[in-house]
Request: fold
Amino acid sequence: MYYLYILYSERNDRYYNGQTNDPERRLEEHNHAPKTSFTSRHRPWIMVECFEVGESLGLARRIENYVKGQRSRRYRRIN
Reply:
């Protein structure tokens, strides 16, 4: 099963979304992976939303790209 997740960095007031088949593992990686990346510069992250999108990795990637393409905080902010 694949999921679309939305993370929020309160420290930098930033959102990040991605897709994965293991949301808990992915959140842990965003918060503790040793490599330098966009998410490593805005730690700590909290998961604000996680949606089940189905068994298809391709569909999960298309949904992720659609959400990223919106570039709207209002669209990404769920709560």
About this structure: The domain at 2-76 is CATH 3.40.1440 (GIY-YIG endonuclease). The chain has a mean pLDDT of 90. The chain has one domain: 2-76. The beta strands are 2-9, 14-20, 46-54.
